[in-house]
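Reminder to self: tokens first, then the designed residues, so the page reads top to bottom the way the pipeline ran.
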């Protein structure tokens, strides 16, 4: 008998526990309103296990909810990051449009001070060679652009057209050594020719030695070369060189146009003059 119980102790133990549970249930059913001391002892014994089980279930549920929340937050953060990138790109585009509108407004305001046929063109290329000063615009013969036409900006003289294709034109800048502009000193009315220098500067040559010429003087177009209208800003005198002998003096000129930053220009299509010069 003992050997049988030892071999089947698990089955016997389970059977006793099941029988014990049935007795408790029958006793509880028959005496609902009467407190059974044995039931209380069992409840007290089971309470720590029940509390531990409930705590474990709550912890697992909380961990699952936290995981779900973290996944949702991660997805929301990714969506917000993408939105921030989109808004930054949109802000950059809007800022660029605003800058373009501002530049075009300045060009159109300057256009209103001139009388003649002019067209707005965009700069699409710059000459990379250091010994040439030129750029390319997106207007050509199909737009009425011709060779040796004045190219201007709200800051002053840019240069003149050199080679006109059908839809693009190369511009010879006033800083190129092949350029020459008939100019006059605005204060003293001393005349000379502004030419480009090999180092990207401009010089005013053929000024009579006795003419009044000082650092800080403004130099403008004279209008006598048949290309540029009269009174357009060329630049400012930065140095005056007078030799001990000779009849002429030379002045270094700083161009008024920021040639490395301009993006739009006005190109003359025929004779152009300043509205202020009209009678």
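Designed residues (279 positions):
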């Amino acid at each position: 008998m003992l050997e049988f119980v030892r071999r089947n102790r698990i089955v016997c133990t389970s059977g006793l526990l099941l029988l014990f549970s049935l007795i408790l249930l029958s006793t509880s059913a028959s005496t609902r309103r009467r407190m059974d001391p044995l039931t209380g002892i069992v409840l007290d014994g089971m309470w720590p296990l029940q509390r531990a089980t409930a705590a474990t279930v709550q912890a697992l549920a909380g961990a699952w909810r936290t995981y779900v929340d973290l996944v949702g937050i991660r997805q929301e953060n990714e969506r917000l990051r993408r939105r921030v990138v989109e808004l930054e790109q949109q802000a950059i585009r809007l800022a660029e449009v605003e800058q373009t509108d501002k530049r075009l407004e300045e060009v159109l305001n300057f256009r209103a001070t001139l009388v003649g046929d002019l067209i707005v063109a965009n700069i699409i290329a710059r000459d990379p060679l250091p010994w040439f000063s030129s750029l390319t615009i997106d207007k050509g013969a199909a737009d009425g652009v011709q060779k040796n036409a004045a190219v201007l900006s709200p800051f002053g003289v840019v240069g003149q057209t050199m080679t006109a294709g059908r839809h693009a034109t190369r511009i010879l800048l006033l800083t190129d050594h092949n350029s020459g502009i008939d100019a006059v000193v605005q204060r003293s009315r001393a005349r000379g020719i502004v030419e480009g220098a090999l180092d990207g500067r401009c010089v005013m040559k053929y000024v009579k030695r006795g003419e009044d010429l000082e650092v800080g003087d403004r130099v403008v177009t004279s209008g006598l070369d048949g290309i540029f209208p009269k009174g357009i800003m060329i630049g400012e005198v930065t140095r005056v060189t007078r030799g001990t002998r000779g009849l002429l003096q030379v002045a270094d000129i700083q161009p008024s146009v920021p040639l490395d930053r301009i993006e739009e220009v006005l190109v003359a299509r025929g004779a152009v003059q300043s509205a202020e010069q009209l009678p």
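Residues 37-111 form the longest helix (75 residues).
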